[in-house]
Write a structure and sequence with these properties.
The chain is α/β, with parallel strands linked by helices and 261 residues long. The chain is 45% helix and 16% strand. The chain is globular, with a radius of gyration of 19 Å.
Length: 261
Amino acid sequence: MFETIELNESGARATITLNRPDRLNAFNKTMHREFQQALETVANNDSLRVLVITGAGRGFCAGQDLGERQPREGSKPDLGETLENGYNKSLRLLHTLKIPVVAAVNGVAAGAGAGIALNCDLVLAKKSARFIQAFSNIGLIPDSGMTWHLPRLIGSARARAITLLGTPVDAETAENWGMIYRSVADENFAEDLESLVENLAARPTIALGLIKDAMQKSWANTLDQQLDLERDYQRIAGLTRDFAEGVTAFSEKRPPVFEGR
């Protein structure tokens, strides 16, 4: 079905694997289109309760394949069009998903590849992974939401430093700075990822989606607006079967069995 990615749906989980390992999973036009198609497929599958995004081979994603952006005599590239119909469209689709999204960063995440990871809800990375924003090295600015995410995640001073200087950030530093959720030893990566995905897939999916949306909207809301939003979302959550199950399980002193409904 796809040439540049793999989409696997199994039970309550889906996995999108960026699959151009010979190019460190860098995006070309085909991958942009197929990644968006995969996200739309996931969005339309109501049985899914968690999505994992990872990379094939030794890297997560090296960002844009610059081989498609070589300057040609007499023509100038429109990189804004690449963003609008490529990464920006993909990230907007990603943020419409009501299920938790885990970035499983198995190697280097550079440029827009790091942007894709940091637009996910949780980032689990191998200790050997690195996050690189080297746009300034080729005369460009960070994109894929990185000028928005980085100052909020790690503070303005660090965000300016790693983007102006193009300084790589190792996974352990990224965790310590609050850029990512967690870094783990390479040999434990698969096991820790499986544990995290199983945990998320077993949790109350509607509530998780509401949490995601509430936190996203909090950046633009006043406290009063956020209190109103929490009221409205709590009303929705309180009508779910999972809330009823959670309260019943608590009173019966047993683990809840959530169905995502």
